[in-house]
Amino acid sequence: MASSQRNALTLTGRIATGLIAGGLTAGVIYVLGVVSVPTVERGVVSTQVDTAAATQSELACSGSFVEIGADPANPIGVVDVGEAVLALQSPDGALAPEALSRSTTTASEAAAPRAMSLSGDAKTTAAAAQAQAAAQERLRGFSASSCGQPLAESWLVAGSTVSGLTSLVLLTNPGEVAANVSLQVYSENGLVETPGSTGIVVEPRSQRIISLNGLAPSANATIVHMQARGGKVFAALQQSQVQGLNAVGVDTAVAVSAPSTQLVIPGVRVVHPDGVSSIDEHGHDEAVQILRVMSLADSDSTVTVTAHGEKGATTKLGTFDMKPELVNEFELEPLPQGTYTITVDSETPILGAMRVFTIGSKSSDFAWFGASDLFDEQAALAVARGPKPQITLYNPGAKTATVELTLDANTRSVTVPAGASITVGAEAGKGYSLDSDQLIGASVSYGDDGQLSGYSLQSPAVRAEPLTVYTR
Q1: Which pLDDT score is estimated for 77?
Q2: Could you tell me if 240 and 250 are in contact, meaning their C-beta atoms sit under 8 angstroms apart?
Q3: Reduced to 3 states, what is the DSSP secondary structure of residue 9?
Q4: Where are the bilayer-spanning segments (predicted)?
Q5: What SS3 state is found at 269?
Q6: Helix (H, G, I), strand (E, B) or coil at 238
Q7: What DSSP state is assigned to residue 52?
Q8: Whole-number Cα distances in Å, 428 to 114, 125, 386, 391
């Protein structure tokens, strides 16, 4: 009886205590609900950190010419041909080219592709280019091309695999991680079925050479889409041509990063040597200028092509209809001897380049002139060794641009009127820094009797995006 009473009292006490506590809690909640409590409001605090100085990237050069089938002991092997000579531009002279391995049977270090490390400001103020002349039985001509940063995705606007034309895709991986590469090939008939174009492994610090003729045979006009996973790749395309028993040109085109609704192609060089006729026995002019272009839209579109000469002189070269995702080629009205900027305006994003032929007194050559990136700050151009080099500047804007070209601490100011293309002489084997107060396209071109080539300014590096840090 006493025990039951004690239990009852204990239970009653617990219930009472619980009610009191519950009442206090409810009271506190009620008070908080009706009494204004001071608060401190603070917006989201963030800061941007410039990661460019802390990141490092690589600059890659594609190396010397290569040739398939030149070794009688290995008919399907790839051999090095000659040596590509580099030109470097760096504010502190710190570029140190290193040879990479290459999938050739000769494995010549002098012919090897090269890589250079860039960090901090050097990524926007350093540049490199290479040049080479060949006089082989099946490889003859002059080629100059820029070196560039490896990318995860890029496009090669060049190449043909019809009879007499050989096109080789050069995939250079200057990094420390293997790259797994896929290639999509477009032709005049659309996307080409290309067995063997995926899962191409490019080992670190090496170059793979892929025959486009093997991937996409009998394609008159090609554009190649390169995508890489893991490591990044610098892509280039070597194209050579043979007519009958004669080699009639070679050039190396480097990749561009993205399509655009306006292509600016500076430094398109037209060379007609004195006393040399380019008219063949059928009355056709062999020194032609051809625009290759492809739209990535899903509907038909048009492009308008204009040639810009010195002091704002312009010549409309035509408006052309395009089918989507087909490689279109248009032979343009012949331009007189000179150096031009070609602009291609489109309703939809496009890829494009110019192919120009020159007929010399003893040999012929052709060149691919690609689109330039536009810049309105510091940039760099390396001028590789070659015949009669020139720098061409094009101003697409509505205001006059002033461009400062600096060579060995000597600065030259060049005025480029709105819509004009200005060409100045350049010193071979040297590097120039450029600084402009307006958006400008730029290129280096070469031309002489039976020799033709050129390359446009590409972004010196894919700049590291600022990192936004949010504090708590």
Answers
A1: 84
A2: yes
A3: helix
A4: 12-32
A5: strand
A6: strand
A7: G
A8: 20, 19, 7, 11
Per DSSP, the three-state class of 30 is helix
| Cα 310 from Cα 420, distance rounded (Å) | 6
From CA 30, how far away is CA 249, in angstroms rounded?
90
For the chain, what are the domain ranges?
A: 52-467
- Per the listing, tokens 């032979």 go with 331
CA separation (Å) from 304 to 127, 135, 263, 330, 410? 32, 38, 10, 11, 39
Identify whether the C-beta of residue 190 lies closer than 8 Å to the C-beta of residue 131.
no
Give pLDDT, residue 122. Answer: 62
Q: Are 173 and 233 in contact (CB under 8 A)?
A: yes
Tell me if 455 sits within 8 A of 444, measured CB to CB: yes
Distance from C-alpha of 254 to C-alpha of 90, rounded to nearest angstrom = 21
SS (H, E, C) 161-217: CCCCEEEEEEEEECCCCCEEEEEEEEECCEECCCCCCCCEEECCCEEEEEEHHHHCC
Q: How far apart are alpha carbons 344 and 328 in whole angstroms?
A: 13
CB atoms within 10 A of CB 189: 13
Q: Name the one residue in this structure whose structure tokens are 């004690």.
A: 6
443: tokens are: 């290129």
Q: By the 8 A CB rule, do 358 and 312 touch?
A: no
* Contact predicate 414/381, CB 8 Å: no
Residues 192 and 411: their CA atoms lie apart, in Å, by: 49
199 in the Ramachandran plot: left (φ > 0), alpha (ψ -120 to 50) or beta? left
Distance of CA 234 to the CA centre of its chain: 8
Q: Which residues contact 74 (CB under 8 A, 6 or more apart)?
A: 105
> What are the 10-residue block averages of pLDDT along the chain, 472 residues in total?
42 40 40 42 47 63 92 83 93 85 80 88 81 94 97 98 97 97 98 94 96 96 98 98 93 94 97 84 82 94 94 90 95 94 96 96 95 92 97 96 94 95 97 95 97 89 44 43
156: left (phi over 0), alpha (psi -120 to 50) or beta: beta
Two structure tokens written together for 356: 């120009």
The helix/strand/coil state of 21 is helix
CA 367 to chain centre: 17
**Residue 257 pLDDT:** 83
